[in-house]
Amino acid sequence: MVEVIVKRGMVVLLCVLIAGCAPLNFVKEGLTQAEFNRDIYQCKLDARRSGPYGNSMVGFREIVSECMIARGYYLQ
Known about the structure:
The protein is mainly α. It has a two-stranded antiparallel sheet. Helices cover 66% and strands 5% of the residues. It contains three helices and two strands; from the N terminus they run αβααβ.
């Protein structure tokens, strides 16, 4: 029974890690590359400054995603 629980936990952990490595493709019509670079840089900077959530890759990505969505981007 314990082995089944451990195996399921490992599968869940593996899925989370794989999802954390997938690239995020943000889209917003009518922007230049320079404007996109400015926005993504600012969102990543905000995520790094966010404290404990910025220290984990999943938390970091969530903060960056929320920031970019708040700026009018959507995930493709």
